[in-house]
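Per-record layout

source: Heyndrickxia oleronia
name: YggT family protein
length: 86
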Amino acid sequence: MALIVTILLEAIKIYSYIIIIYIFMSWFNAQQSSIGQIFGRICEPYLEQFRRFIPPIGMIDISPIVAIIVLRLASYGLSQIYYWTI
């Protein structure tokens, strides 16, 4: 059980890093590169869920920030559920 929780927590952390890299790539217009397109296919389905409900403020899209916060909360929740079960 501990191995599964550890793998899930690491996957959440890696996915958060991928979202951050994808955001930085959008600032530098690098999303058209091959790695940018791969990150787009990975990140956009998740980010699109937040973009439906959180409108951009001017030119700033804050939905990735909320998406990362939700991932962190899921990570904390998963940790707590695991510690309650042992």
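summary: The chain is about 80% helix and 0% strand. The chain has a mean pLDDT of 94.
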